[in-house]
Structures are given as C-alpha cells and as structure tokens.
Design brief:
Blueprint: H1 13-20, E1 23-32, H2 46-63, E2 71-75, H3 92-99, E3 105-113
Parallel strand pairs: 1-2
Antiparallel strand pairs: 1-3
Length: 114
C-alpha cells in the first residue's frame, strides 16, 4: 500500500522534498499481497497477481528516481490477509469491497540522516 494523506506513515509531497535534503535512502522493501479470492481453484492463483502488483510499484519507484539496486521485492500471494472477511455477505460486491485491503503492496523505506 502506498500511503497518501495524513498519518504516521504518510508524508505530503512538500514535506518529502524538504526531507530528501536531510536523509539518505539506504533500501526499499516491497512486499506484494493479494486477497483470498481464487477464480480457478488453483492453489497458486494469487501468487502471480501479487508479483505483478509488486512489479508495478517497483517500476513506479524507479521512474520516480529511486535506484533499482536499492529495491528488494517479495510476493506473498494470498497468504497474509489483513481482513478475513468471513462474515456472511449478501452480495459478492460486498465481499469484494471487504477484501480490498488485502490487495496491497507494503512499502518500507530504510533511510539514515545525512
């Protein structure tokens, strides 16, 4: 998940520009995830989905100027759910809305002060 807005993990664009002068990026860790939905019944159905998701974020970070050598990636498929969504949902749309938080890429920046 790329954090945008306010909160402990979020920084607005202006703040990032100011902080960029004071920090040195050491590494970036990306972990891709998928929800538990499986349209085929195949055990590894969600693995390539999480791989594509993490590759897209990696590509974005490289386009934004982060050195590709600093970026490490991992894809976990549907193995680590944030929302179980096990309650009885009246519609598939409601279930899919509940599962959205599981479709994510976790981004961790390791940095040090210059």
């Amino acid at each position: 998940m790329i954090c945008v807005g306010a909160g402990p993990c979020c920084r607005g664009p202006g703040r990032l520009d100011a902080e960029r002068e004071q920090i040195e990026l050491q590494a970036v860790r990306l972990v891709g995830h998928a929800d538990r939905m499986n349209g085929t019944g195949e055990g590894d159905y969600n693995q390539p989905i999480s791989e594509k998701r993490v590759a897209a974020v990696r590509e974005l970070l490289v386009r934004l100027g982060i050195d590709v050598k600093l970026i490490a990636t991992d894809a976990r498929g549907g193995s680590r759910q944030l929302s179980a969504c096990e309650a009885g949902f009246k519609t598939r749309v409601a279930l899919e809305a509940c599962l959205l938080s599981n479709q994510r890429v976790e981004v961790r920046f390791e940095e040090r002060v210059k």
